[in-house]
# Entry
Amino acid sequence: MFDMLIDAMLMLMRLDIVLMISGGLVLGMLVGALPGFTTVMAMAIVLPISFFLEPILGIPFLIGVYKGGIFGGSIPAILVNIPGTGASMATTLDGPAMTRKGQSRKALEIALVASAVGDFLSSFGTILVIGPIAMIALLIGPPEISAILLLSLMIIVMSSSGNFLKGMVMLLIGMFLATVGQDPVGAMVRFDFNFYPLQAGIDLLPLIIGLFAIPEILFAIEQRREAVVDPAHTKAQGERLRWSELMACGRTILRSTAIGGVIGMVPGMGQVVAAFIGYSAAKGASKHPETFGQGEIEGVAAPEAANNAVNGPTMVPLLTLGIPGDNITAILLGAFVAQGLRPGPQLFQDQGTLVYALLFSMLLACVLLLVIGYLLTPVFARVVTISKAYLVPLMLIFAVGGTYVYRSNPMDLYFMIGFGLFGYGARKLHFDLTPLVMGFILTPPLEYALAQSMLLSRGDLLGYLVGTRPIAVGILVLTPVLIFWLGYRQRKQRRVRP
# Structure
């Protein structure tokens, strides 16, 4: 084990890896600083680039985009009260107030340090726990995998924005799309409707780019008459962050890191939930909670540490069980699969050194984020003023080019357009696309695990589960209980919401 970790660290000692991570960070921060353009969209568009690179270059590049985008969203949130990403929504509670007090430079710097520290510590914790979790996962059989996948899908539906019915509709649509083509057990063609391109199934790449990139582009075109932000409001002003102020925020950053780390391991929760819980925890623990919302520096440090601390732990369910926790890790899953690396406990046995090298690249990305963010945050602050008229055509070119170049199949372009229009209409009707994507990704392994369970049961599935698979039975019993609890919590939150 120790030799594997040393080999993994040595694998990262290459200049081209540092440059790829740095390029990903810059790109992610650029997109994150642009209100209306999401990190998910950026990763969907640049995903094909990783296919043409070796895994140790392509996947760290995407990790850089991921981490840079989550931090980048805090820049417009602090300066102009416009969250660049959903993860930075809680930052608008105190960030803009600090800007109005002439402390925008200090707010940006504490956001950067809290983001980098929270991300680094949670990623380091991920490296410590992921190996033992993978070893435990090796002992899990098809019935337990089926139960865990079902539980994960239900958590994702209940945690998605919108009501349960809309989330379930999108989940079922995603599961149906995943069954188009050959089934994973008998290789029988189904739901092709005598349309030859469907016999091979629907590829993940056009679906991801269509659902995440095209709607964002269409929404940006709709908002073409929005006023450009006054450049005078995007300057980092005031004194720099003092060491004593950073130390005073230390306990808040550590608390939010722990909160984000735990939430990151739960599929469907994500950065937004972590940011608001981290903010609430910091306010509750403060000796002067009345200052929160009025430009409190801990009110910026808490959500930024929490939302970035989610990044590393999301790799735990992804790499050990092949379960993506959110849309971003769903895209990372596509990158792993395209590189011939199928996430799961077996991956640690077959490619352990490479997996740990990719995990160590997250630590390297955190260090580079601190350096690049310190140098370039004033530049990215100006990005808020760039007109979308210059960016939308470029995004469209990348979306079309990335979709086509992967397989050079013109049908992928039609699929991308179709999914793009569907995603645009669904978001107009306030449907969350996350359950659809997760249903599409998790249905094949769920179907395969269910088929294996049926074969093992020899026709008596209930007796097999009760008699020999108590863990699977426990998870299945827990599922409706958890659904009820999540539903109760959501109804309670709606009742107390003003």
Summary: The two ends are 53 Å apart (CA to CA).
